[in-house]
Design brief:
With 490 residues, the protein is α+β, with helices and mostly antiparallel strands. It is 51% helix and 19% strand. Bound molecules: adenosine-5'-diphosphate.
Amino acid sequence: MRSIYRYLNPIVHLGESNYSFVFPLIANIVLCVSSEFYAYIIARNPLIIGEYIIFINVAFIIYFSFRDGLRGGYISTLFAICYYFYIIATRHYHGFELSMAVDTTIILGVLYAILASIIGWLKQRIDWLIESSAIEKERLQTIIDQLPVGVIVTDGHGILTQTNKQLNKILGIRMPIGFAIGLDTIPQIKINGSLPIPHQSPLSQALKKGTSIIGREIYYQQVNGNEGKYLQVNSAPIHNKKRRVIAAASIITDITGQKDLERQKDDFLSMASHELKTPLTSLKMFLDLQEKELSSSKSKKAQYFNQRIKDQIHRLSELTNDLLDISRIQTGKLRFKKESFQLSQIVSDTLEGLSGMTRQHELVLRNNFSGQVFADRYRIYQVLVNLISNAIKYSPKGRKIIITLSSQNRHALISVKDYGIGIEKEQQKKIFERLYQVTDRNEKTFPGLGLGLFIAKEIVERHSGKIWVTSEKGKGSTFSFSLPIPHKKG
Ligand code: ADP
């Protein structure tokens, strides 16, 4: 019964272009024969057919055009017209009646053919569209199955429409088609140690906000599995021409291996910098002792060499400290000892300490703020030293360096302005990244590891402040940072 229904229902055949020839043929023969049978045997009135056969033929043409395309429509049209001529011939029409019947048949024939053409063409066009979108989907599926990353595609309401094999491999579970992202939950997994909160998933947020969520890292575990995995999730909405979100896609990459390597590298960095610190401290101590010895000696050369060694040791210990700080930042172990202090005091102390570093540059202080901040004194000093020594290093032609202290919107602002080499606009954001150094073939290379600004940014941001740069290539740069001014008690 079900298969007969499926065979007869034209909707079921949408998207299939194997149009039947035999079915419309047999159905039309059966229609003509049974109509003649009814007229001659049951109704016993051969003229009775004229009134209802037109409706039945129209119904047949519509049905077969919709079921079997142009072929089904034209077969039904042909049978209808032939049958009408057969009726005219067998019912012995004469004179005016005959010419009326022939004219009507011709007009009906043309109308039937138009009807069959329109419906049949539409049906074939729909089939073609459905088929080509299915082929497109198949092609897309083949491509995404080859990708080394997991893929999730949803419609505009977050209903899962497509995934790939790699996703199942990464997650260790199958996400069923029809799963509602943002509503349904998967009880057998944990995200960052707790059960997933559906509306917080990057895909759900990308759909809701209509913007991409890039580089979200999560720790994924199966409730009854052993080790978890680090996954990186990138989600993006897909808009139509009217900018309405009609779908969304997520790319999921397993970065566990990369994370392990990073951890090993951080462990090594931390160990190496700790190991380096001990011999450096004793070296410094012995050099101080040697300096004392040499002060009584007459050898100016030995004193000079001793001073140079001390300078280099100082640089080496600064680099080691930077490496230590980086490893502390990476492992979340950078701690602060915050206290209230006069910001201008630390700025002038820093300037005093650094003025010996350069003879070419003039360090100018413009102090318009005399308030206190609540911060780690040593770390703020470290940020200042970094900005001022960069200003010195990157203005080799040696001009003024202006340090300004001011306040704005309950924040203390410190800026360091130089007239040095400046930084290209595209590079300005990147210089605060770890290990980033501006490289320019036309410029001389400057020593450094590209760590200072990364550390400075971390320190300032951990004090709820901001750090930024304004610069013009060839004209100089101004590095600024802000620190919140604490509310006065009482
Ligand atoms: P580095 O040890 O290389 O100086 P930083 O993190 O302090 O590392 O700085 C990152 C990069 O930013 C530098 O390599 C340099 O290219 C650029 N930079 C920093 N300060 C300045 C400045 N005052 N003028 C021009 N370029 C600068």
